[in-house]
């Protein structure tokens, strides 16, 4: 709801001129409106800046925003730089009326705008800004579920070979033959990061094979919750392999939350124990190359994977196999070989199809609009941009 | 039931989180903050488990005189030193000038920086392996990296100063970073986004059970 300005009260306070007063024109047309699709806690104030607010040689030094709650005294709530014409007031209450005015300040004078009418923030049930995202998410989720159901009915689904995952059994076998440890590093983030969750799901598959082969696995972690979750995962794998007696809590140990302290400890383990196989799967930052290069130097076969594009080049340079982005998330499904899990991977392809179509259409329409500049093409282009732009 | 209960909780919370993203109205608007607070509380409690585990592992190593037990002794001594000094400082332990602050500034930060500094040497050895022109892709990488590195330093423009504006090494480096590099990175990001959706659905629907010991 947009509420027009009404005639004005004087500014709540004033400055005394200390020398020659620099007269400035006030900001005009202040309008307050509800911030759409929130829980009734924000309002938007817009105004036309003072005509003395110029980029070069302007007399306005700042704008002060005043707010009156339920008709009470106006209080200053914000100071903005010259050129400002928009303010979002947050942390408001949906049962309170708010009115605003804007004051332009020069070095020794001030000029106030009209005060806006009072308005209450509105609470909305659905965020319509996200309607296109909702439909796209619905299509992708529906296709994932459709392909899972298709796979359950027995239809063969083609999933391309992922070299890094094909090498998992071989890497574990190598450690078994050499009688050395397997080191599993799940990154340095906590369980609230989906990359760590992906790493733990892969750990479930890896530890099952480790239990079958009776190999040693060691997992130093940087978060206590990851330690607890990883222990449960490995324990469950050993139980499902029928070897609960071989499980030991000390397979997973907490080191420290500190990034480089953790790196020092893991590098020390690598150098002292010389593991035959190292898995570096999860969220990695500056430590990625330090860990991967140390692993490389001790001659371990290394399988790495992360969803952080900035760290991928380091892993590609230093590791034998790297799971790039989506492959990290596909790993558990791929390793399981279960049709319904593989079906979920096929569902992703629909999302990729939508992305490819949008990119191709966008490029084509942008080119036509640049050459021909037709209004219809530009409108379609703007629509596509709106569909794929998330504004919360 | 040991497996079913976590799956049910995961399913309900997962669906709730999807809904709260599209519904700004209370109580959904509070969900994210609630769960974030709960996670912090659980995480803070779990740190005790982590610290106890660290001490237990290190103590066992020292008592049983396992290989390299001296390092474990250093861990125990450092841990106890920082805990005792931190507790003795009371609630003002982070105030500048305290003993805890001294340990942080003159021991922890230099040690941490030393580990970080090792990265420079590892970058050199990793780059050497990555840039060896063994095949077409590695050669392409080598050539692109050569021009980008040269274009990012002033000497690049000095060397290519005779070229017209827009064709100098800094321009070439910017072009490589803005177009082929950005396009590749965005393609990876799209794949990651879809991978996250797929993984989340598998976990929410209870199809992915390997983290609780299910599946093959």
What does this structure look like?
- Among the domains of chain A are: 2-112, Immunoglobulins (Immunoglobulin-like); 168-319, Rossmann fold.
- Helix content of chain A is 42%, strand content 20%.
- Chain A has helices spanning 131-152, 163-166, 168-178, 194-213, 224-240, 259-273, 287-297, 312-318, 326-336, 339-372, 375-387, and strands spanning 2-3, 28-34, 43-48, 62-69, 75-80, 86-89, 98-105, 110-112, 181-187, 216-221, 252-254, 277-283, 301-306, 321-324.
- In chain A, the strands form 3 sheets. A 6-stranded parallel sheet of chain A has the order 11-10-9-12-13-14, with helices on both faces.
- In chain A, helix 4 runs parallel beside helix 5 (224-240).
- Residues 1-18 of chain A have low confidence and may be disordered.
- Chain B has 216 residues and is mainly α.
- Chain B has helices at 4-22, 28-63, 69-89, 99-131, 136-151, 154-159, 169-204.
- The interface between A and B is large, with 90 and 63 residues.
Descriptive labels:
heterodimer; A: 392 residues; alpha/beta; Immunoglobulin-like; Rossmann fold; six-stranded parallel β-sheet; four-stranded antiparallel β-sheet; 11 helices; 20% strand; disordered N terminus; B: 216 residues; mainly alpha; 7 helices; 0% strand; extended
Backbone structural class of chain B:
mainly alpha
- Percent helix of chain A: 40-55%
Proper CATH architecture of the domain at 168-319 in chain A: 3-Layer(aba) Sandwich
Give unreliable regions of chain A as ranges: 1-18
CA-based shape of chain B: extended
Which regions of chain B contain 5 or more consecutive residues with pLDDT less than 50? none
